Amino acid sequence: MKGEREEEKELNKNSEIFASCSFSSLGLHPTLCNELQERLGFEAPTLVQAQAIPVVLSGRHVLVNAATGTGKTVAYLAPIIHHLQSYSPKIERNQGTFALVLVPTRELCIQVYEILQKLLHRFHWIVPGYVMGGEKRTKEKARLRKGISILIATPGRLLDHLKNTSSFMHSNLRWIIFDEADRILELGFGQEIEQILDLLGSRLTEPVVKGNKVSSISTSQRQNLLLSATLNEKVNNLAKISLENPVMIGLDDKKMQLDQLIEHTESVESNTDDELECPSKVTNPSTGDYKLPSQLVQKYVKVPCGSRLAVLISILKHLFEKETSQKIVVFFSTCDGVDFHYSLLSDFRYSPNSQSEAEGSEMFLRCKIFRLHGSMKQEDRRSTFQAFKTEKLALLLSTDVAARGLDFPKVRCIIQYDSPGEATEYVHRVGRTARLGEMGDSLLFLQPVEVDYLQDLGKHGVSLTEYPILKVLDSLLLHGQTHRTKKFVSLELHPWVLSVQKALESFISVQPRMNKLAQNAFISWVRAYTAHRGDLKRIFMVQKLHLGHVAKSFALKQQPSLVGKSFQKQSKKRKRDQKQKGLSKKRKITGKT
Ligand SMILES: Nc1ncnc2c1ncn2[C@@H]1O[C@H](COP(=O)(O)OP(=O)(O)OP(=O)(O)O)[C@@H](O)[C@H]1O
Is ATP-binding among this UniProt entry's keywords (predicted)? Predict the structure, then answer.
Protein backbone atom coordinates (compact mmCIF):
# COMPACT_ATOMS: atom_id res chain seq x y z
CA MET A 1 0.00 0.00 0.00
CA LYS A 2 2.76 2.33 1.06
CA GLY A 3 4.67 1.45 -2.09
CA GLU A 4 1.73 2.48 -4.27
CA ARG A 5 1.39 5.80 -2.51
CA GLU A 6 5.10 6.47 -2.92
CA GLU A 7 4.79 5.65 -6.59
CA GLU A 8 1.83 7.98 -6.96
CA LYS A 9 3.77 10.73 -5.18
CA GLU A 10 6.70 10.18 -7.52
CA LEU A 11 4.41 10.39 -10.54
CA ASN A 12 2.85 13.62 -9.27
CA LYS A 13 6.26 15.07 -8.58
CA ASN A 14 7.36 14.20 -12.10
CA SER A 15 4.35 15.75 -13.75
CA GLU A 16 4.93 18.97 -11.84
CA ILE A 17 8.50 19.13 -13.11
CA PHE A 18 8.63 17.36 -16.45
CA ALA A 19 6.57 17.88 -19.56
CA SER A 20 4.79 14.97 -21.17
CA CYS A 21 6.65 15.30 -24.44
CA SER A 22 10.09 14.51 -25.78
CA PHE A 23 13.01 16.77 -26.70
CA SER A 24 12.65 15.78 -30.35
CA SER A 25 8.99 16.80 -30.42
CA LEU A 26 10.16 20.31 -29.52
CA GLY A 27 12.00 20.52 -32.82
CA LEU A 28 15.58 19.83 -31.70
CA HIS A 29 18.03 18.00 -33.95
CA PRO A 30 18.11 14.21 -33.27
CA THR A 31 21.86 14.17 -32.48
CA LEU A 32 21.34 16.91 -29.90
CA CYS A 33 18.42 14.95 -28.39
CA ASN A 34 20.73 11.94 -28.13
CA GLU A 35 23.39 14.00 -26.39
CA LEU A 36 20.83 15.34 -23.93
CA GLN A 37 19.84 11.80 -23.12
CA GLU A 38 23.19 10.04 -23.21
CA ARG A 39 25.58 12.64 -21.84
CA LEU A 40 23.31 14.53 -19.49
CA GLY A 41 20.84 11.74 -18.72
CA PHE A 42 17.81 13.90 -19.55
CA GLU A 43 14.92 11.68 -20.64
CA ALA A 44 12.28 14.36 -21.06
CA PRO A 45 12.26 18.15 -21.00
CA THR A 46 11.30 20.02 -17.85
CA LEU A 47 8.21 22.22 -18.10
CA VAL A 48 10.28 25.35 -18.53
CA GLN A 49 12.36 23.71 -21.27
CA ALA A 50 9.20 22.51 -23.05
CA GLN A 51 7.89 26.03 -22.99
CA ALA A 52 11.06 27.92 -23.81
CA ILE A 53 12.79 25.74 -26.42
CA PRO A 54 10.19 26.17 -29.22
CA VAL A 55 10.05 29.92 -28.58
CA VAL A 56 13.84 30.30 -28.64
CA LEU A 57 13.94 28.17 -31.80
CA SER A 58 11.43 30.54 -33.39
CA GLY A 59 13.89 33.41 -33.10
CA ARG A 60 11.84 35.61 -30.75
CA HIS A 61 13.40 37.50 -27.87
CA VAL A 62 12.45 35.86 -24.57
CA LEU A 63 12.17 36.72 -20.89
CA VAL A 64 12.06 33.59 -18.71
CA ASN A 65 10.97 33.94 -15.11
CA ALA A 66 11.03 30.46 -13.58
CA ALA A 67 11.80 28.95 -10.19
CA THR A 68 15.33 28.00 -9.24
CA GLY A 69 16.44 24.54 -10.34
CA THR A 70 13.90 24.11 -13.14
CA GLY A 71 16.38 23.59 -15.96
CA LYS A 72 16.80 27.06 -17.43
CA THR A 73 20.36 26.43 -18.67
CA VAL A 74 19.42 23.80 -21.24
CA ALA A 75 16.33 25.82 -22.14
CA TYR A 76 18.60 28.33 -23.87
CA LEU A 77 21.68 26.24 -24.75
CA ALA A 78 19.84 23.51 -26.66
CA PRO A 79 18.05 25.73 -29.20
CA ILE A 80 21.21 27.77 -29.82
CA ILE A 81 23.21 24.62 -30.53
CA HIS A 82 20.39 23.38 -32.73
CA HIS A 83 20.62 26.50 -34.89
CA LEU A 84 24.41 26.64 -34.99
CA GLN A 85 24.83 23.01 -36.05
CA SER A 86 22.42 23.57 -38.92
CA TYR A 87 24.47 26.37 -40.55
CA SER A 88 25.64 25.42 -44.00
CA PRO A 89 28.49 25.65 -44.70
CA LYS A 90 29.51 24.65 -41.17
CA ILE A 91 30.64 27.49 -38.96
CA GLU A 92 34.37 27.81 -38.41
CA ARG A 93 36.44 29.02 -35.51
CA ASN A 94 37.74 32.02 -37.37
CA GLN A 95 34.20 33.35 -37.69
CA GLY A 96 34.38 34.23 -34.02
CA THR A 97 31.56 34.36 -31.52
CA PHE A 98 27.97 33.60 -32.45
CA ALA A 99 26.44 33.36 -29.00
CA LEU A 100 27.34 35.14 -25.81
CA VAL A 101 26.14 33.97 -22.40
CA LEU A 102 26.54 36.50 -19.59
CA VAL A 103 26.61 35.11 -16.06
CA PRO A 104 27.17 36.77 -12.67
CA THR A 105 29.86 34.57 -11.15
CA ARG A 106 32.94 32.56 -12.10
CA GLU A 107 31.50 29.34 -10.73
CA LEU A 108 28.40 29.70 -12.85
CA CYS A 109 30.62 30.42 -15.83
CA ILE A 110 32.38 27.09 -15.38
CA GLN A 111 29.14 25.26 -14.67
CA VAL A 112 27.51 26.45 -17.91
CA TYR A 113 30.74 25.75 -19.81
CA GLU A 114 30.78 22.15 -18.60
CA ILE A 115 27.20 21.53 -19.70
CA LEU A 116 27.98 23.14 -23.04
CA GLN A 117 31.03 20.93 -23.53
CA LYS A 118 28.89 17.83 -23.02
CA LEU A 119 26.21 19.01 -25.41
CA LEU A 120 28.77 19.88 -28.08
CA HIS A 121 30.53 16.54 -27.98
CA ARG A 122 29.23 15.49 -31.37
CA PHE A 123 29.37 19.02 -32.83
CA HIS A 124 33.12 19.47 -32.61
CA TRP A 125 33.17 22.41 -35.04
CA ILE A 126 31.20 24.54 -32.56
CA VAL A 127 33.77 25.74 -30.04
CA PRO A 128 32.75 26.52 -26.44
CA GLY A 129 34.80 28.82 -24.23
CA TYR A 130 34.72 31.25 -21.36
CA VAL A 131 36.31 34.45 -20.14
CA MET A 132 36.00 35.49 -16.51
CA GLY A 133 37.58 37.46 -13.73
CA GLY A 134 40.46 35.73 -12.01
CA GLU A 135 41.80 34.04 -15.14
CA LYS A 136 44.90 35.09 -17.07
CA ARG A 137 44.00 37.72 -19.67
CA THR A 138 46.77 36.72 -22.06
CA LYS A 139 45.56 33.13 -22.23
CA GLU A 140 42.02 34.35 -22.79
CA LYS A 141 43.18 36.69 -25.54
CA ALA A 142 44.85 33.79 -27.32
CA ARG A 143 41.69 31.70 -27.11
CA LEU A 144 39.57 34.58 -28.38
CA ARG A 145 41.96 35.10 -31.26
CA LYS A 146 41.54 31.47 -32.30
CA GLY A 147 37.79 31.89 -32.02
CA ILE A 148 35.08 30.82 -29.57
CA SER A 149 31.67 30.07 -31.10
CA ILE A 150 29.69 30.09 -27.86
CA LEU A 151 31.29 32.30 -25.26
CA ILE A 152 30.33 32.36 -21.58
CA ALA A 153 31.52 35.42 -19.70
CA THR A 154 31.29 37.46 -16.56
CA PRO A 155 30.45 41.09 -17.46
CA GLY A 156 33.58 42.87 -16.22
CA ARG A 157 36.02 40.62 -18.03
CA LEU A 158 33.95 40.58 -21.20
CA LEU A 159 33.92 44.38 -21.29
CA ASP A 160 37.66 44.37 -20.80
CA HIS A 161 38.10 42.15 -23.86
CA LEU A 162 35.60 44.11 -25.91
CA LYS A 163 37.69 47.21 -25.29
CA ASN A 164 41.18 45.77 -25.35
CA THR A 165 41.31 42.58 -27.38
CA SER A 166 41.27 43.63 -30.98
CA SER A 167 41.33 40.06 -32.25
CA PHE A 168 38.05 39.27 -30.47
CA MET A 169 35.73 38.77 -33.40
CA HIS A 170 32.01 39.24 -32.73
CA SER A 171 30.64 40.56 -35.97
CA ASN A 172 28.64 37.35 -36.41
CA LEU A 173 27.07 37.58 -32.98
CA ARG A 174 23.47 36.46 -33.08
CA TRP A 175 22.49 35.63 -29.49
CA ILE A 176 23.02 37.41 -26.19
CA ILE A 177 21.80 35.57 -23.12
CA PHE A 178 21.58 37.09 -19.66
CA ASP A 179 21.56 34.14 -17.28
CA GLU A 180 20.68 35.02 -13.67
CA ALA A 181 20.00 38.55 -14.87
CA ASP A 182 18.79 39.69 -11.47
CA ARG A 183 22.06 38.69 -9.84
CA ILE A 184 24.17 40.32 -12.55
CA LEU A 185 22.34 43.56 -11.90
CA GLU A 186 22.35 43.26 -8.14
CA LEU A 187 26.10 42.86 -8.19
CA GLY A 188 26.19 46.31 -9.74
CA PHE A 189 27.07 45.32 -13.28
CA GLY A 190 24.25 47.43 -14.78
CA GLN A 191 26.61 49.95 -16.36
CA GLU A 192 28.89 47.27 -17.75
CA ILE A 193 25.90 45.53 -19.30
CA GLU A 194 24.78 48.77 -20.96
CA GLN A 195 28.27 49.36 -22.30
CA ILE A 196 28.42 45.79 -23.57
CA LEU A 197 25.08 46.23 -25.34
CA ASP A 198 26.35 49.48 -26.85
CA LEU A 199 29.64 48.00 -28.00
CA LEU A 200 27.83 45.07 -29.53
CA GLY A 201 25.26 47.32 -31.13
CA SER A 202 22.49 45.55 -29.29
CA ARG A 203 20.88 48.28 -27.22
CA LEU A 204 17.38 49.01 -28.37
CA THR A 205 16.54 52.34 -26.84
CA GLU A 206 19.58 54.53 -27.34
CA PRO A 207 21.71 55.25 -30.37
CA VAL A 208 24.26 52.55 -30.90
CA VAL A 209 27.93 53.38 -30.43
CA LYS A 210 29.58 53.54 -33.81
CA GLY A 211 33.05 52.17 -34.24
CA ASN A 212 35.01 49.39 -35.73
CA LYS A 213 33.74 46.85 -33.21
CA VAL A 214 30.00 47.15 -33.83
CA SER A 215 28.62 43.95 -35.27
CA SER A 216 27.84 43.76 -38.93
CA ILE A 217 24.85 41.52 -38.34
CA SER A 218 21.72 43.64 -38.25
CA THR A 219 20.05 43.89 -34.84
CA SER A 220 16.90 42.45 -36.39
CA GLN A 221 18.80 39.18 -36.74
CA ARG A 222 19.78 39.29 -33.10
CA GLN A 223 17.97 37.31 -30.50
CA ASN A 224 18.36 38.19 -26.87
CA LEU A 225 17.25 36.03 -23.96
CA LEU A 226 16.92 37.07 -20.36
CA LEU A 227 16.53 34.52 -17.56
CA SER A 228 15.78 35.31 -13.97
CA ALA A 229 14.19 33.62 -10.97
CA THR A 230 13.14 36.98 -9.53
CA LEU A 231 11.86 40.10 -11.24
CA ASN A 232 12.46 43.64 -10.16
CA GLU A 233 12.80 47.15 -11.52
CA LYS A 234 16.37 46.62 -12.70
CA VAL A 235 15.58 43.40 -14.55
CA ASN A 236 12.64 45.15 -16.14
CA ASN A 237 14.87 47.99 -17.32
CA LEU A 238 17.38 45.57 -18.78
CA ALA A 239 14.50 43.80 -20.54
CA LYS A 240 13.40 47.12 -21.99
CA ILE A 241 16.78 48.01 -23.43
CA SER A 242 17.70 44.57 -24.69
CA LEU A 243 14.56 42.65 -25.65
CA GLU A 244 12.48 43.47 -28.66
CA ASN A 245 8.84 42.41 -28.49
CA PRO A 246 9.76 39.48 -26.24
CA VAL A 247 7.79 36.43 -25.30
CA MET A 248 7.35 36.25 -21.54
CA ILE A 249 7.67 32.80 -20.04
CA GLY A 250 6.78 32.27 -16.42
CA LEU A 251 5.62 29.05 -14.87
CA ASP A 252 3.29 28.59 -12.00
CA ASP A 253 4.34 25.98 -9.50
CA LYS A 254 1.10 24.13 -10.10
CA LYS A 255 0.85 21.30 -12.58
CA MET A 256 0.77 22.31 -16.22
CA GLN A 257 0.45 19.95 -19.11
CA LEU A 258 2.07 20.64 -22.42
CA ASP A 259 -1.08 21.78 -24.20
CA GLN A 260 -1.74 24.19 -21.35
CA LEU A 261 1.83 25.35 -21.64
CA ILE A 262 1.44 26.17 -25.28
CA GLU A 263 -1.78 28.01 -24.53
CA HIS A 264 -0.02 29.77 -21.72
CA THR A 265 2.82 30.82 -23.97
CA GLU A 266 0.45 32.21 -26.52
CA SER A 267 -1.68 34.07 -24.06
CA VAL A 268 1.45 35.43 -22.45
CA GLU A 269 2.75 36.44 -25.83
CA SER A 270 -0.28 38.57 -26.55
CA ASN A 271 0.31 40.47 -23.31
CA THR A 272 4.00 40.79 -23.76
CA ASP A 273 4.32 44.42 -24.66
CA ASP A 274 1.86 45.63 -22.09
CA GLU A 275 3.77 43.80 -19.41
CA LEU A 276 7.02 45.38 -20.33
CA GLU A 277 5.67 48.83 -20.77
CA CYS A 278 4.07 48.71 -17.38
CA PRO A 279 6.89 48.11 -14.91
CA SER A 280 4.54 47.73 -11.98
CA LYS A 281 3.08 44.61 -13.49
CA VAL A 282 6.44 42.97 -13.75
CA THR A 283 8.05 44.34 -10.68
CA ASN A 284 5.32 44.54 -8.08
CA PRO A 285 6.88 42.56 -5.28
CA SER A 286 3.62 41.88 -3.49
CA THR A 287 2.30 39.71 -6.28
CA GLY A 288 4.47 36.78 -5.27
CA ASP A 289 6.70 37.04 -8.30
CA TYR A 290 9.44 35.16 -6.48
CA LYS A 291 9.41 31.67 -7.79
CA LEU A 292 10.13 29.02 -5.18
CA PRO A 293 9.95 25.26 -5.65
CA SER A 294 6.64 24.10 -4.18
CA GLN A 295 8.19 21.10 -2.36
CA LEU A 296 10.68 23.25 -0.44
CA VAL A 297 10.02 23.20 3.33
CA GLN A 298 10.95 26.61 4.75
CA LYS A 299 11.53 27.15 8.44
CA TYR A 300 13.00 29.80 10.68
CA VAL A 301 14.65 29.48 14.06
CA LYS A 302 14.58 32.27 16.63
CA VAL A 303 17.87 32.33 18.53
CA PRO A 304 19.19 34.96 20.95
CA CYS A 305 22.43 36.41 19.64
CA GLY A 306 24.80 34.93 22.23
CA SER A 307 23.66 31.37 21.55
CA ARG A 308 23.74 31.52 17.75
CA LEU A 309 26.98 29.60 17.29
CA ALA A 310 26.16 26.87 19.81
CA VAL A 311 22.73 26.42 18.22
CA LEU A 312 24.12 26.38 14.68
CA ILE A 313 26.60 23.63 15.38
CA SER A 314 24.05 21.67 17.39
CA ILE A 315 21.58 21.76 14.51
CA LEU A 316 24.33 20.65 12.11
CA LYS A 317 25.23 17.77 14.42
CA HIS A 318 21.59 16.77 14.68
CA LEU A 319 21.06 16.90 10.90
CA PHE A 320 24.19 14.93 10.05
CA GLU A 321 23.40 12.30 12.66
CA LYS A 322 19.81 12.00 11.48
CA GLU A 323 20.75 11.39 7.87
CA THR A 324 24.14 9.93 7.25
CA SER A 325 24.22 10.81 3.58
CA GLN A 326 23.39 14.39 2.87
CA LYS A 327 24.77 17.77 1.91
CA ILE A 328 24.13 21.04 3.69
CA VAL A 329 25.05 24.60 2.71
CA VAL A 330 25.36 27.34 5.34
CA PHE A 331 25.35 30.97 4.19
CA PHE A 332 27.34 33.70 5.92
CA SER A 333 27.43 37.43 5.26
CA THR A 334 31.22 37.83 5.04
CA CYS A 335 34.37 36.08 3.84
CA ASP A 336 35.87 36.40 7.34
CA GLY A 337 32.77 34.72 8.76
CA VAL A 338 33.23 31.79 6.40
CA ASP A 339 36.94 31.48 7.21
CA PHE A 340 36.37 31.50 10.95
CA HIS A 341 33.53 28.97 10.95
CA TYR A 342 35.41 26.78 8.49
CA SER A 343 38.47 26.58 10.72
CA LEU A 344 36.37 26.15 13.82
CA LEU A 345 34.17 23.37 12.48
CA SER A 346 37.11 21.60 10.87
CA ASP A 347 39.02 21.41 14.15
CA PHE A 348 36.52 21.60 16.97
CA ARG A 349 36.61 18.50 19.15
CA TYR A 350 34.18 17.88 21.95
CA SER A 351 32.67 14.81 23.54
CA PRO A 352 29.38 15.67 25.19
CA ASN A 353 29.17 12.21 26.67
CA SER A 354 32.60 11.69 28.11
CA GLN A 355 32.74 11.86 31.88
CA SER A 356 36.26 13.22 32.08
CA GLU A 357 38.75 15.01 29.91
CA ALA A 358 41.01 12.00 30.16
CA GLU A 359 38.63 10.08 27.94
CA GLY A 360 39.67 12.37 25.12
CA SER A 361 37.46 14.27 22.77
CA GLU A 362 36.08 13.49 19.36
CA MET A 363 35.36 15.55 16.26
CA PHE A 364 32.15 17.48 16.81
CA LEU A 365 31.02 17.11 13.19
CA ARG A 366 31.91 14.07 11.18
CA CYS A 367 31.62 15.15 7.61
CA LYS A 368 33.78 16.79 4.99
CA ILE A 369 33.74 20.56 5.31
CA PHE A 370 34.27 23.01 2.46
CA ARG A 371 34.33 26.77 2.18
CA LEU A 372 33.66 29.11 -0.72
CA HIS A 373 33.98 32.89 -0.95
CA GLY A 374 35.13 35.62 -3.26
CA SER A 375 38.48 36.28 -1.58
CA MET A 376 39.73 32.75 -2.16
CA LYS A 377 42.18 32.00 -4.95
CA GLN A 378 40.52 31.05 -8.19
CA GLU A 379 41.99 27.50 -8.17
CA ASP A 380 40.72 26.94 -4.63
CA ARG A 381 37.27 28.21 -5.55
CA ARG A 382 37.22 25.88 -8.50
CA SER A 383 38.38 22.80 -6.62
CA THR A 384 35.91 23.39 -3.78
CA PHE A 385 33.10 23.81 -6.22
CA GLN A 386 33.98 20.57 -8.02
CA ALA A 387 34.62 18.59 -4.84
CA PHE A 388 31.40 19.60 -3.10
CA LYS A 389 29.47 18.63 -6.21
CA THR A 390 30.61 15.01 -6.01
CA GLU A 391 30.54 14.47 -2.23
CA LYS A 392 27.70 12.55 -0.61
CA LEU A 393 28.14 13.69 2.99
CA ALA A 394 29.44 17.23 3.24
CA LEU A 395 29.00 20.71 4.56
CA LEU A 396 29.68 23.85 2.54
CA LEU A 397 30.16 27.19 4.27
CA SER A 398 29.74 30.01 1.81
CA THR A 399 29.02 33.64 1.17
CA ASP A 400 26.49 34.62 -1.47
CA VAL A 401 29.03 33.76 -4.11
CA ALA A 402 27.32 30.34 -4.11
CA ALA A 403 23.79 31.67 -3.91
CA ARG A 404 23.05 32.11 -7.56
CA GLY A 405 22.70 29.55 -10.24
CA LEU A 406 25.11 27.02 -8.81
CA ASP A 407 23.88 23.50 -9.21
CA PHE A 408 25.18 21.21 -6.50
CA PRO A 409 23.38 17.89 -6.76
CA LYS A 410 21.46 16.58 -3.77
CA VAL A 411 21.79 19.44 -1.33
CA ARG A 412 19.27 18.53 1.36
CA CYS A 413 19.25 21.65 3.46
CA ILE A 414 20.15 25.33 3.24
CA ILE A 415 20.88 27.21 6.44
CA GLN A 416 20.92 31.00 6.30
CA TYR A 417 22.93 31.66 9.42
CA ASP A 418 23.48 35.33 8.59
CA SER A 419 20.35 36.92 7.26
CA PRO A 420 20.24 37.46 3.51
CA GLY A 421 19.01 41.03 3.41
CA GLU A 422 17.02 41.49 0.24
CA ALA A 423 14.23 38.96 -0.22
CA THR A 424 15.61 38.09 -3.68
CA GLU A 425 18.77 36.90 -1.99
CA TYR A 426 16.70 34.70 0.28
CA VAL A 427 15.04 33.11 -2.74
CA HIS A 428 18.32 32.37 -4.51
CA ARG A 429 19.99 30.96 -1.43
CA VAL A 430 17.16 28.52 -0.75
CA GLY A 431 17.12 27.72 -4.47
CA ARG A 432 20.30 25.66 -4.00
CA THR A 433 18.09 22.90 -2.61
CA ALA A 434 14.79 21.33 -3.72
CA ARG A 435 16.04 21.41 -7.30
CA LEU A 436 14.13 19.71 -10.05
CA GLY A 437 11.46 18.25 -7.81
CA GLU A 438 13.86 16.88 -5.15
CA MET A 439 12.93 17.39 -1.52
CA GLY A 440 14.68 20.18 0.31
CA ASP A 441 14.61 22.12 3.57
CA SER A 442 15.69 25.60 4.42
CA LEU A 443 16.31 27.19 7.77
CA LEU A 444 16.64 30.89 8.43
CA PHE A 445 18.33 32.08 11.63
CA LEU A 446 16.76 35.17 13.17
CA GLN A 447 17.37 36.90 16.46
CA PRO A 448 14.20 37.66 18.44
CA VAL A 449 14.55 41.36 17.51
CA GLU A 450 14.67 40.52 13.82
CA VAL A 451 11.45 38.54 13.41
CA ASP A 452 9.79 41.37 11.44
CA TYR A 453 11.89 40.11 8.57
CA LEU A 454 9.31 37.32 8.23
CA GLN A 455 6.72 39.95 7.30
CA ASP A 456 9.08 41.35 4.72
CA LEU A 457 9.39 37.90 3.15
CA GLY A 458 5.64 37.47 3.47
CA LYS A 459 5.12 40.49 1.20
CA HIS A 460 6.77 38.47 -1.54
CA GLY A 461 4.59 35.45 -0.91
CA VAL A 462 7.30 33.61 1.04
CA SER A 463 6.09 32.04 4.27
CA LEU A 464 8.04 30.13 6.90
CA THR A 465 7.11 28.03 9.91
CA GLU A 466 9.03 27.79 13.17
CA TYR A 467 11.73 25.14 13.64
CA PRO A 468 11.32 23.11 16.85
CA ILE A 469 14.73 24.00 18.24
CA LEU A 470 14.01 23.10 21.86
CA LYS A 471 12.87 19.64 20.86
CA VAL A 472 16.08 19.17 18.91
CA LEU A 473 18.25 20.34 21.81
CA ASP A 474 16.31 18.07 24.16
CA SER A 475 17.11 15.13 21.95
CA LEU A 476 20.88 15.61 22.13
CA LEU A 477 22.64 13.45 24.66
CA LEU A 478 24.74 15.21 27.26
CA HIS A 479 26.66 13.06 29.76
CA GLY A 480 24.67 10.10 28.58
CA GLN A 481 21.23 11.59 29.13
CA THR A 482 18.76 13.94 27.50
CA HIS A 483 17.61 17.13 29.20
CA ARG A 484 14.03 18.27 29.00
CA THR A 485 13.55 21.98 28.55
CA LYS A 486 10.51 22.32 30.75
CA LYS A 487 12.81 22.68 33.71
CA PHE A 488 14.78 25.48 32.06
CA VAL A 489 13.70 28.98 31.35
CA SER A 490 15.10 29.66 27.93
CA LEU A 491 17.19 28.37 25.09
CA GLU A 492 20.31 30.18 26.33
CA LEU A 493 20.09 28.27 29.60
CA HIS A 494 19.57 24.87 28.08
CA PRO A 495 22.29 22.60 29.55
CA TRP A 496 23.34 21.42 26.12
CA VAL A 497 23.78 25.00 24.84
CA LEU A 498 25.66 26.03 27.96
CA SER A 499 27.96 23.07 27.71
CA VAL A 500 28.72 23.53 24.01
CA GLN A 501 29.25 27.28 24.46
CA LYS A 502 31.74 26.64 27.25
CA ALA A 503 33.63 24.13 25.16
CA LEU A 504 33.72 26.52 22.19
CA GLU A 505 35.03 29.38 24.29
CA SER A 506 37.78 27.24 25.81
CA PHE A 507 38.72 25.97 22.38
CA ILE A 508 39.07 29.49 20.96
CA SER A 509 40.80 30.99 23.97
CA VAL A 510 43.78 28.63 23.87
CA GLN A 511 44.48 29.02 20.16
CA PRO A 512 45.82 32.41 19.09
CA ARG A 513 45.12 31.70 15.41
CA MET A 514 41.48 30.84 16.06
CA ASN A 515 41.16 33.82 18.33
CA LYS A 516 42.38 36.11 15.58
CA LEU A 517 40.01 34.58 13.04
CA ALA A 518 37.13 35.01 15.49
CA GLN A 519 37.98 38.68 16.04
CA ASN A 520 38.18 39.41 12.33
CA ALA A 521 34.90 37.62 11.76
CA PHE A 522 33.28 39.58 14.56
CA ILE A 523 34.38 42.91 13.09
CA SER A 524 33.27 42.02 9.58
CA TRP A 525 29.95 40.73 10.84
CA VAL A 526 29.18 43.99 12.64
CA ARG A 527 30.13 45.94 9.54
CA ALA A 528 27.90 43.82 7.30
CA TYR A 529 25.07 44.19 9.79
CA THR A 530 25.31 47.97 9.63
CA ALA A 531 25.24 47.83 5.84
CA HIS A 532 21.66 46.58 5.51
CA ARG A 533 19.85 48.87 3.17
CA GLY A 534 16.60 50.83 3.07
CA ASP A 535 13.68 49.33 4.92
CA LEU A 536 15.83 46.51 6.25
CA LYS A 537 17.68 48.93 8.51
CA ARG A 538 14.45 49.09 10.50
CA ILE A 539 14.61 45.32 11.08
CA PHE A 540 18.33 44.76 11.42
CA MET A 541 19.02 47.61 13.80
CA VAL A 542 22.62 47.85 14.79
CA GLN A 543 21.62 49.91 17.82
CA LYS A 544 19.72 46.91 19.15
CA LEU A 545 22.77 44.67 19.02
CA HIS A 546 24.44 43.74 22.26
CA LEU A 547 28.06 43.54 21.14
CA GLY A 548 29.00 41.34 24.07
CA HIS A 549 26.45 38.81 22.85
CA VAL A 550 27.71 39.17 19.29
CA ALA A 551 31.20 38.36 20.58
CA LYS A 552 29.78 35.26 22.27
CA SER A 553 28.42 34.14 18.94
CA PHE A 554 32.06 33.99 17.80
CA ALA A 555 32.99 32.10 20.97
CA LEU A 556 34.90 35.14 22.22
CA LYS A 557 34.83 35.72 25.92
CA GLN A 558 35.56 39.37 25.39
CA GLN A 559 34.24 41.82 22.87
CA PRO A 560 36.97 42.93 20.44
CA SER A 561 37.35 46.65 19.95
CA LEU A 562 35.64 48.11 16.92
CA VAL A 563 37.75 51.23 17.01
CA GLY A 564 41.06 49.53 17.43
CA LYS A 565 43.80 49.03 14.92
CA SER A 566 42.43 45.89 13.40
CA PHE A 567 39.08 47.51 12.58
CA GLN A 568 40.80 50.46 10.94
CA LYS A 569 43.22 48.17 9.16
CA GLN A 570 40.34 46.15 7.79
CA SER A 571 38.49 49.27 6.65
CA LYS A 572 41.60 50.48 4.85
CA LYS A 573 42.15 47.08 3.27
CA ARG A 574 38.55 47.04 2.12
CA LYS A 575 38.85 50.47 0.51
CA ARG A 576 42.09 49.44 -1.17
CA ASP A 577 40.51 46.26 -2.52
CA GLN A 578 37.53 48.22 -3.78
CA LYS A 579 39.78 50.62 -5.62
CA GLN A 580 41.78 47.83 -7.15
CA LYS A 581 38.72 46.00 -8.31
CA GLY A 582 37.15 49.26 -9.47
CA LEU A 583 34.06 48.20 -7.65
CA SER A 584 33.71 51.06 -5.24
CA LYS A 585 30.48 52.30 -6.76
CA LYS A 586 29.12 48.88 -7.45
CA ARG A 587 28.17 47.53 -4.12
CA LYS A 588 27.36 49.18 -0.94
CA ILE A 589 28.75 46.26 0.98
CA THR A 590 31.76 45.46 -1.08
CA GLY A 591 34.02 42.68 -0.05
CA LYS A 592 31.04 40.91 1.39
CA THR A 593 31.12 37.89 -0.85
N1 LIG B 1 15.30 17.72 -18.68
C2 LIG B 1 15.98 17.43 -17.59
N3 LIG B 1 15.95 16.19 -17.07
C4 LIG B 1 16.66 15.88 -15.94
N5 LIG B 1 17.43 16.77 -15.27
C6 LIG B 1 17.48 18.03 -15.74
C7 LIG B 1 16.78 18.43 -16.92
N8 LIG B 1 17.04 19.73 -17.14
C9 LIG B 1 17.86 20.14 -16.15
N10 LIG B 1 18.13 19.12 -15.32
C11 LIG B 1 18.98 19.18 -14.09
O12 LIG B 1 18.28 20.03 -13.18
C13 LIG B 1 19.19 20.78 -12.40
C14 LIG B 1 18.82 22.26 -12.47
O15 LIG B 1 19.04 22.78 -13.76
P16 LIG B 1 19.58 24.28 -13.98
O17 LIG B 1 20.80 24.51 -13.17
O18 LIG B 1 19.62 24.53 -15.43
O19 LIG B 1 18.37 25.08 -13.30
P20 LIG B 1 18.11 26.65 -13.23
O21 LIG B 1 16.66 26.81 -13.47
O22 LIG B 1 19.05 27.36 -14.12
O23 LIG B 1 18.42 26.96 -11.71
P24 LIG B 1 18.92 28.37 -11.04
O25 LIG B 1 17.81 29.34 -11.21
O26 LIG B 1 19.18 28.02 -9.64
O27 LIG B 1 20.13 28.72 -11.81
C28 LIG B 1 20.56 20.46 -12.95
O29 LIG B 1 21.16 19.49 -12.11
C30 LIG B 1 20.30 19.86 -14.31
O31 LIG B 1 21.29 18.94 -14.67
Answer: yes
